[in-house]
Amino acid sequence: MPFEDPPSPRAPRPTPPEKSPFWRDLLHLWFVKYNPLYLVSAMLVLAGLNLVSKGLASEGSLYGPLAVGLVAEVYAAVLIGGAALLTRVGQRRPAVLLALIAIVYQVDLTLHTETCAVLGALGVTLSALWLAIFVAKLVALGWALRVRIAPRALLAATLGALGLAALPRTFVALGPEHAGTLLALFVFALGVVFPRDLTDCVTSRAELDAWGRLVLRRTVLATWAIWGVLFALHVAFWASEAPIAWARVVLALLALVVARQPRELRVWVTGGGALALFAVTRPSELSSVAALFALTLAVRAATRLRTVVPALRSTPDDPSPYRVRTTEREAWTTTEALARVSPEERLRLITGTLAATYVAQWTSGWRGGSLPPHNLLVDVLFLAVAAALAWRARGRLVLGFAGLVLGHGVAVSGVLALVPRPHSLVGWGASALVLGFALLLAAIGVSFAVPRRLARPAEGGEDDRGGHDRAPDPAGYRS
Q1: Could you tell me the CA-to-CA distances from 34 to 78, 220, 294, 338 in Å, in that order?
Q2: Structure letter (DSSP) for residue 199
Q3: What is the share, in percent, of the chain residues with pLDDT greater than 70?
C-alpha cells in the first residue's frame, strides 16, 4: 500500500552494566570509604612516643622528652597536610578523619607542657613556643578543611591551650586551696568565652548539602568533646602530682550553670541561698563564694542568654484552592534566640555585682563569730561608686544597699553611743516631739518631690493609667 508507513527499526535492548568484582568493592569500602590505616598509624605513633619517652626517662635524660614532643608536632603537621591534600582531591571523608586525629594530637598527648614546668627559663620558652604552634596548627586545620573558625571559638581554644601551658608550672608553687582557686577561676573564664552556639563557631567556605552540614556539625561537637575529655585527663594528672581543692572548681561549674539560667529569680535565689548557707556552715569560704557570685552576676549582665522569642506569622483561614478570597489570621509561634537581658535586669545585676564584691572584700579572712570591722577607705570608695551608678543609671536600688552598708557601719562604729538616751518622762516626750516634727517635714518633702502628673491626671485629658477623665477635678480629690 503506498500510504503505509515504513516499518521502524527495532531499538537495541540495553545491556546491563558489568558488575565489578567483589574484591574491588571490598577494597573500596575498607580502604577508601572507611580506611582503618589512619587510626592504626595514629595508635602506632602514640605507642612509639610513649615507649621512647619511658625509655629516655629511665636513662635519666631530661631533654629527651622534648625531642619526643617535637616528633609529635611533626606527625600532627603531616596529618594536617594530608587532610588538605584529600580535601582538594574531593576525598572529604578521610580528610575529616585525619583532621580529627590531628585534633587529638593538639592536646599534648606526650605531656610536653608538664615536662616544661620543671625546666626553668628554658621551659617557659618552650611552653610559649608550643602555644604558638598550637594556634598555628589550628589555623592550618581551618585552611586544610576549607572552613572558617569564628574568633570566639579560636579564643576559647587558645585559652584552653594557655591553661595547659601555664597551669602545671603554677601548681608546683601553690598549695591545695590556692591551686583550687586558680583552677576554678580558669574554668570559669573558659566557660565564659566558650561559644554559646556551636553551629556558628565553624562554617564551611564551600557550599555544602544537608548531609555535609550534618557532618560538619558532628565534627565540631566531636572536637569540643575530645578536647574536654583530654583536658580533664591533664587536670587529673596535675592532681596526682599536687593536691587541688576540688570544691571551688565544682562551685565554678555550678556558677556557670546558674549564670545562664533563663529566669532571673533562680539566679538570685541560688546565689543568695549559697551565701546564707556558707555564712552559717563555713564562714571561711564566704568571701570566695561572694566573689564567685559577683562574677556570676557580671557574666549574666554582659553575655547573651538563650531566650524564647515570640514570632508572628500569618496563615490563611481556609487553604482550599477553590476559595477565591481568603482571609488571613495571625498566629503566634516561638523560636529560641540569643539576646541580652533587659536594661532593668542589667541594673539589678550590676547592683548585685557591686554588693557581692563588697561582701567578698569585707569578709576576706573571716573565720566566724562577730562580723569583721568596716574599713573606712573601702566604705567611702563603695559609697562613691554606688552614688555614681545611681546617678548614671537612675537606680534607687543601689542607694538602698549603700544605705544598709552605711547604717551597719555607723551602728557598729560606736557613734550612736555618743547620742544621749532619755531617762525621764520629759526626755522621752522631747524625743517624741523631735521625731514627730522630723517625720512631718519628711512627709511634706516627699509630697513636694512627687511629680504632679503622678498625684492626679491632667484635666480633660488622658491619665497615666491609659484612661480618660470624664470631668475635670479642680479640687484635686480624685487620684
Answers
A1: 20, 20, 51, 38
A2: T
A3: 73
Could you tell me if 100 and 86 are in contact, meaning their C-beta atoms sit under 8 angstroms apart? no
- Are 183 and 267 contained in the same domain? no
- Residue 334 phi/psi, 5-degree rounding, is -125, 140
Name the band, by pLDDT with cuts 50, 70 and 90, for residue 154. very high
Residue 412 predicted with pLDDT over 80 = no
Handedness of CA 144, 145, 151, 153 (dihedral sign): negative
Distances (CA, A) of 184 to 255, 283, 478: 10, 19, 59
Does residue 315 contact residue 331 with C-beta atoms inside 8 Å?
yes
Give the mean pLDDT of 36-44. Answer: 83
pLDDT of residue 446: 67
The answer to whether 108 and 226 have CB atoms below 8 angstroms apart is no
Domain interval for residue 165: 27-244
What is the total residue count of the chain? Answer: 479
**How distant, in Å, are the alpha carbons of 101, 184, 356 from that of 181?**
33, 5, 17
Are residues 276 and 354 both part of a single domain?
Answer: yes
Question: 428: helix, coil or strand?
Answer: helix
